[in-house]
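From: lab user (bench 3)
To: helpdesk
Subject: output format question, protein + 2-acetamido-2-deoxy-beta-D-glucopyranose

Hello, I'm new to running complex predictions and I'm not sure whether the block I got back is the full result or only part of it. Here's what I submitted:
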Amino acid sequence: MKFFIILTVLFGVFCTMNEAIPVKTFLRVQNQLGGPNLTIHCSSSEDDLGIHVLVNDMYFDWHFRPNVWGSTKFKCDLQWEHGSGTYTVYKNDYVQLCPVHCYWYVKPEGPCLQSDEPDRQFCSPWQGSEAKRFGELDSGGDMVEETIVQDIRNSHFP
Ligand SMILES: *[C@@H]1O[C@H](CO)[C@@H](O)[C@H](O)[C@H]1NC(C)=O
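Helpdesk reply: Thanks, we reran it on our side. This is the complete output you should expect:
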C-alpha cells in the first residue's frame, strides 16, 4: 500500500513537472540558393550538431525543448560560395514569431526566418564580404535580430 501511495505521488509530481516544461520547438535550415551547396554548422552551448553540406532544396532539422529559464539559444554558421555568416536561429525572443516551427530558408540574399503568424519572412543579409555582389550588405546579423525583436514588439506588444 505504501508503495502504491509513493507511486501515485511520484506520478502526480511527474505530470506537474511535465506541464511546466515548454513544448518542443522544431528548427529547420533549408538550402534555397537555387543550385549551390550550403555548408552549415549549428550549435547551442550544450549541443554541437556538426557540419553538414546541403545540396539545393535539402534541409537539416532538429528539435529541442527550450529550457525553462528561456536561455536556450542556437546559432548556425552558414557558408556558400558567395556569402557567409553566423546567425542566431533560435532564442527566446523569437517565440512569438515561430512558437513551434522555426524554419529558415537560406536564399542568395541571405537567411530568412519564416514566421508562423502572420505569414512573413524575416531576412538577414550575408555578413561575409563575398556577399557584396548582392548589394549593400555590410551590416551584421545582430541588426536583423534587432529588427525581428522590434517587429515582435510592434505586432504583439503595442
Ligand atoms: C555539392 O555537394 C554534393 C554532395 O556533397 C557534391 O556531390 C557536389 O559535387 C557538390 N556540388 C558543388 C557544386 O559543389
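A quick orientation on your result: Residues 37, 53, 55 surround 2-acetamido-2-deoxy-beta-D-glucopyranose (CB under 6 Å). Let us know if anything else is unclear.
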